[in-house]
Write a structure and sequence with these properties.
Length: 418
Amino acid sequence: MSKRSAETIFRHVSELIRAAETGLRLEAATEIWANELTGKLRDKLLKLELLTGSTKSSTDADKLLEPFLQRFIDNMVDAAANTKKNYLQTKQWLTAFLGDTTRLVDITPADLDRWHRHMKSEGLALSNRNKHIQRARKFFQSAVDDRLLSESPAAKLTQERQPKGMRVDRSRQFFVDPTLTERVLKGLPDGDITLTFVLARFVGMRRCELYAARWDWIDWERCRLLIDSPKTGYRECPMFEAEPYLREACDNAPQKSGKIIRHFSDAASMTTLMRKHIERVVGKGNSWPKTLQQLRSTRRTELEELYPNHAINEWLGHDGKTAEAHYLQVTPEHWERAKENAANGAESSLKSEEPPEQERRGNTGGNIRAISQAFAAFEAQKNPVFLATDSSKTLGKSHEVPRRGVEPIQNHCVLMVF
């Protein structure tokens, strides 16, 4: 054993003795050292009762990958069900690659880098890979906070960027234009399926918000809908084009205070059935991925052309930065307008190629001399001592306005006449 190793053991054992005598908590470094102990040294310290309840065996369940990740998810008591589901997916990716019983202390940054590349080789979309990386960083940072690790092996794990510097993969974005919207609405059956599409398309509601919407949350006079979001809390949003559909459905609803979407056990089955109906209307090959997200994205893009940013953020429940990264699209109409403006601009420039007569002559007199003379006459009326009596002969020269009376000495004022 080296001298440095012996000094390290001595320092930590001394801290263990101090904590046992005083009843105070161990220093963080010693607690992490004790947590990582194995073999005879740990057995000796256990016999001496120097290891407290906060220092556990490196083979304890919560120091293994799968039990630790599951405990982390179980403690997310305030998280929405869909958020927990997403964390479970990240857990599955981690344990499938690293192993359920792998000790946390044995996981290295290189292991997680290989895990990252493994997700890419499996064909996982860039946005999904980045989400898993974000959750993995939270997992291992929690282990550091619990003093199970001295440092996070995911600290250097960074999200991927698109070539243009964007982290979000926009290749799957789809704009549901008014023509396609009308076509889908004509083909959807009346009832919950149509209401689901209408609320997502015209009000921009998330899936978790659709299932919670109630009839008594509608303010018919002000044309507003109260939305309860597990992500952002309560907010109000105009009903926009959804109002006539909601009025008709409310008139036929058996209960005016119940849920707007009634015939589904959960939001997932509701959106799955709606997707199948859309595929039936437009054809399976012509449908779009992430049905509800694209409807919400379409609504945000349309509203961006009509209302200020802060108002749309308030209505849809996200900020402008999130909208730019995940929702706003460059539509075919934008490209067409840019093309038309370019053509009109080229035509206008051709018409204005011939300059006016005075511009062709250049600054050699003309109207510039007349302006100079008028300016000199105006100044002479205000100030009799103004010296520019003939500005036509003094064009471009400087004139000094002398001091008057007994006023304090000041710097001379220099006036340039053009």
